[in-house]
Design brief:
Layout (H helix, E strand, L loop, with lengths): L2 E7 L9 E7 L2 E7 L5 E3 L6 H18 L3
Antiparallel strand pairs: 1-2, 2-3, 3-4
Length: 69
C-alpha cells in the first residue's frame, strides 16, 4: 500500500488539468505526473514491475477522490 500520498497542480491556474504527485512504497519515495487522460509518467524511480499495476490503480483512486469530487 502506498503511504504519504501528496499531489499538486502542475500549473498556476489550478483549473488546468495535470498534477505532480509523490508517495512512499516499501520505504522508497516515488514521484510522477498524472495527466488529464489518466496516464502516469514516472520521474527518476519506477516502482517494481510486479507492483506497478496495483500502484497505478491506487493512484487513480486517490486522484478521483481528491481532484474530481
Amino acid at each position: 500500500m502506498i503511504q504519504h500520498f501528496q499531489f499538486q497542480s502542475m500549473y498556476e491556474n489550478k483549473k488546468l488539468p495535470g498534477w505532480t504527485f509523490s508517495f512512499f512504497y516499501k520505504g522508497t519515495k516515488y514521484n510522477g505526473s498524472y495527466h488529464k487522460d489518466g496516464t502516469i509518467e514516472w520521474k527518476e524511480e519506477h516502482p517494481p514491475v510486479s507492483d506497478e499495476e496495483m500502484i497505478k490503480k491506487q493512484i487513480h483512486e486517490l486522484m478521483l477522490y481528491h481532484v474530481y469530487e
